[in-house]
Design brief:
Blueprint: E1 4-10, E2 13-16, H1 23-35, E3 39-46
Antiparallel strand pairs: 1-2, 1-3
Amino acid sequence: METVRITWEQDGESRESAVTYSPQAAEDYKRYKEAEEGVTSVSIVPAKL
């Protein structure tokens, strides 16, 4: 099964999710993250296991 992570910029720093998601679930979490104040450049990337 393919797993992905979410990356984003917040307060001038690059961040990455601590957990992995299925690609379908990541789409939902990406929308939640984009709605947070001060968060930009939200992306879904392949997880490095």
